[in-house]
Amino acid sequence: MSQHPELGRLDGMDIYADDSIDVSPICSINNGRCSTFCFPTPSGRTCGCQDNVQLQSDQLTCEGVKFCPSSLENAVLSPDCLRRSGDSCSYFCAQGYVSSTIEKLLCTTEGVWNTDTTKLCSKIIPKQNKEGNAESKISLYVGGAVGGLIVIIIVVVAIIFLLKRRNSGRETGVEYEQPVANFNLSNGDGPKPEDHYCTLSF
């Protein structure tokens, strides 16, 4: 095209032999994917080039047309992108990345994309790890609280058990009576030892 600036770029051409339209409208959509000329036919379309320029083997692109790079960082071009000068292409971010800038790329006449392709997609920060750490901390705190509560309950139960056991021992105390002899050594006429008793409590 640069060798024939007088031609410019033809976006579309409609040719009718009569009042009826008997050709395909494919050329009205993205120039029929043709790089230069799109000639509609009853069955579809035919791509063409300016004089002395050959159509390449893909039957879409003329020789000398510049292409934008096909490789993108952390992104993949859509399958219908031809990467030719003037083409607008969508892209998809790789797994683990999300689009951070524009939704479409434009291939300029210099054969480069209209934006920095290294910044198209940004890495996704996994939220699940943060949530998992928070859940782990919560579980740890809850587990510690429950464990401490169980220890306190065990100690209280043990104290209550010991107190009850002590009180029950006092309530079941038995009084024992044992004879104590009272000897009168002054004479032999005094009472006998078995006649005097005293009560001892334990």
Question: What does this protein structure show overall?
Answer:
The protein is of the alpha+beta class and 202 residues long. The protein has a domain of 62 residues: Complement Module, domain 1, CATH 2.10.70.10. It is 22% helix and 19% strand. The chain is built from one helix and nine strands. The chain has a three-stranded antiparallel beta sheet with strand order 3-4-6, with no helix packed on it. A hairpin with a 2-residue loop joins strand 1 and strand 2. The protein is rod-shaped, with a radius of gyration of 52 Å. 11% of the residues are buried.
Observed structural traits:
202 residues, alpha+beta, Complement Module, domain 1, 9 strands, rod-shaped
Beta-strand segment tally? 9
CATH architecture of the domain at 66-127: Ribbon
C-alpha Rg, in Å? 52 Å
Helix content: 10-25%
Tell me about the biggest sheet?
3 strands, antiparallel
Brief description of this entry?
By secondary structure, this protein is of the alpha+beta class.
Give the arrangement of secondary structure elements.
Elements: E1 37-41, E2 44-48, E3 75-77, E4 88-93, E5 97-99, E6 104-106, E7 121-123, H1 127-171, E8 175-179, E9 197-201
Antiparallel strand pairs: 1-2, 3-4, 4-6, 5-7, 8-9
